[in-house]
Amino acid sequence: MEPLMISGRELLIDDVVAVAKGRPVALDPMAIPAIERSRAAVERLVAEGAIAYGITTGFGRFKDKLISPEQVQQLQLNLVRSHAAGVGPALDEMIVRAMLLVRANTLARGHSGVRLLLIQFLMDMLNRGVHPRIPAQGSLGASGDLAPLAHLALVVIGEGFATYRGELLGGCRALQRAELTPMTLEAKEGLALLNGTALMVGLGALLARRAINLALSADIAACMSLEALHGTDRAYDARVHAVRPHPRQIECAAFLRKLLVGSQLLRQHDPNNVQDPYTLRCVPQVHGAVRDAIAYAQWVINIELNAVNDNPLIFVDEQSDHIDVISAGNFHGEPIAIAMDYLKLALTDLGNMSERRTARLIDADCNGGVLPMFLTTHGGIESGLMIAQYTAAALASENKVLAHPASADSISSSANVEDHVSMGATSVRQAEQVLTHVETIVAIELFAAAQGVDFHEQMGAGASVVLGQGTAVAYQLIRERVPFLVCDEPLAPHIEQVRQLVAQGSIKEAVTAHIEGG
């Protein structure tokens, strides 16, 4: 596979996803002069005994403690060891790879003062599959993701733990297996590794891609439910959305119309039944607003992927060779925290819509008897899909707790020097939980909608039903994994099969390829 060239300036969300899945990386030669210039500046500051935060001073509350040149290496080593205070479950390997990539890309901008050797080492870890074991919890999202990144840095110096080819090893042993030699960190390098938003933005990039897949899968599920419930697509008319011109509402309605082209399950004009319930009628308005939140998250993440967000920053005037070391706050995760809170709120409501459509599919009293109660022929002796809806409801309710904005909170740290924090790492981890729940909720809706479609075929004396051009593709994919349930059986394996189709983007990709190709 061709390596992804990184320069600190052009990294995109899809690049992060590709590297997280295994694509190798290489450094753009154009980035080298700036890296070497900032490194030379750091070495000059140390040699001259200049006062520069984190280079010749301690950290945080110890910013006024001067460090001699002889203690510089020990300072960086102590920093990494003392900050490795993370707890909780280990981050997934894809998230760790995203973090390694993001950190290398940030350092490649040439304002962090690290050696070229360190950036290459991070890329070697990626390319050879050395993945630090990083606990998920411990970041306040200001001063960056200090604790998680300290666990990453431990492996760089041959400590901590890492997985190599599926085996958890001590950091030194993992590097040896990959034919790498642990590094000794020089001035500024430990701080440059730890200060930054790599967890927030790395995981955020992966979630932004998953969220796009999920939103389109939810559109597909809504359309299949509309067909199973004999709904009308009149509310998706382009003229309706043109007069309320939110762009993603318009895009969503257009996508729904494409999905339903050719469907013979939709209700024709009926003067006694001119409109459907909100979860069917208002799909463009609600799902379109969810698309807005996803687009905002993408916008923020794409900027942050190419941001310099450690502290202090090194600026060297190429003409005069003057060095400015500026202590500032680019490590503060507030932009990401707010974007991820917005995203998890939007996804929570996407799940609310989907769960309510599932409830309508299984409730004959609610759907007017269009479908049998709990989507089973032998109600009473059989429960059908009754408890599948319970599961969707449980996840939807759990999301309402997780949707509370983490960024609304702050807690002072470092003896009140760091007196406002973003809680961005919490917001992004909660967004991951919400997104995972909604993938399952939408899978349950697709499962129920497919069952409902098959009942129409049964009630039609065996005549085949004709679905829309997009929903037909989704239905076929589901039926390749999950059969029509003629009697009660464990539902969990079937839900998991459909969940994988949603989570892996299989339904979205197959359907969009078909309708765009057509």
* Total discrete domains: 2
Helix content range: 40-55%
- Span between termini: 31 Å
Q: What count of helical segments does DSSP give?
A: 19
- Determine the CATH superfamily of the largest domain: Fumarase/aspartase (Central domain)
| Class from secondary-structure proportions | mainly alpha
Shape: elongated
Can you list the strand order of the major beta sheet?
A: 4-6-7
Radius of gyration: 27 Å
CATH class wording of the largest domain: Mainly Alpha
Order of helices and strands: EHEHHEHHEEHEEHHHHHHHEEHHHHHH
Low-confidence runs (pLDDT<50, min 5 residues)? none
Major sheet: size, sense and barrel closure?
3 strands, antiparallel
CATH architecture level-2 label of the largest domain: Up-down Bundle
Task: Compute the average pLDDT.
Answer: 95
Number of strands: 9
Strand content: 5-15%
The name of the CATH topology of the largest domain is Fumarase C, Chain A, domain 2
